[in-house]
Amino acid sequence: MSATRSCMVRQFQYYADLSEADIELLDSLEYSPEKLPPERVVWREGGSANELAVLSEGWACSYYTLEDGSRLILDIYLPGDVIGLREFATSEHLATVETITECTLCRFPHHHLTDIFAKSFRLTRVFFAVATTQQSILVERMINLGRRKASSRIAHFLCEMHARLGRMNEHMGNQFRLPLSQEMLADIMGLSSVHVSRTFSQLYDDHLVERSRHNIRIPDMDRLIEHAGFSNSYLGRQSIIRDRA
Q1: Separation of alpha carbons 169 and 128, rounded Å
Q2: 86-139, pLDDT tens digit by residue?
Q3: Which residues are registered as beta bridge partners of 211?
């Protein structure tokens, strides 16, 4: 087994210590990589839900299309994320999934996940932890939309992205790449593109966020966390499976 672990394995190792057998089971889900360009639909809302996918490289998102043709972005998927867990018990996809950047995606049928559940009690618990973390992120997104002012919404989202990316890169510091267009940020925040631009200008004037195209720098993380009212507890606790064994 290679010493270089996949992003998915490293994501799962955040929650629990995995055996070599567990790692081989996870690696089996990434045997058929598929290269996709940016803005490629992976599956559409209402389509038959008979598969999941591992995002091995790149960024993707899921969204609902509203009655007026606009969209609400629900999830931002990062390398190592499993896409489609919330739809494991449904017959139709609940949202459209689309790539943001060039991606490597590995699709697999539902029964492969069932096979893993039968073979590894530890991975069953980790998949449950991953699914509940995804649900918690969605709940926090709804709170962001309904209860926070614009500057706090954007600040909270940036804190979340920093925390999630930091799990895969502990030496990241306070700078990271955010490959989201102004329109995408508006669709995440429930704001207009103009309002997003003005809010970033406000955050810059307040010395909270520096933004240059797709690059984000946070001069003082503690101040941004305080401004956002951010707590990373909803993102799941490290080694939670081991601690609750």
Answers
A1: 24
A2: 898 899 999 999 999 999 999 999 999 999 999 999 999 999 999 999 999 999
A3: 216
Same fold, 7-142+237-243 and 144-235: no
DSSP secondary-structure letter at 48?
B
In tens, the pLDDT along 158-189 reads: 999 999 999 888 788 999 999 999 999 999 99
pTM: 0.92
Whether the Cβ atoms of residue 156 and residue 203 lie closer than 8 Å to each other: no
The CATH architecture assigned to 144-235 reads Orthogonal Bundle (1.10)
Superfamily for domain range 7-142+237-243: Jelly Rolls (2.60.120.10)
Tally the residues of the chain. Answer: 245
Closest C-alpha among 197, 169, 82, 63 to residue 132? 82
Q: Which residues, 6+ apart, have CB-to-CB distance to 43 below 8 Å?
A: 49, 51, 93, 96, 97
- For residue 40, give the 3-state DSSP assignment: coil
Where are the domains positioned within the chain? 7-142+237-243, 144-235
Number of alpha carbons in the 13 Å side-chain half-sphere of residue 30: 22
CB atoms within 10 A of CB 133: 20
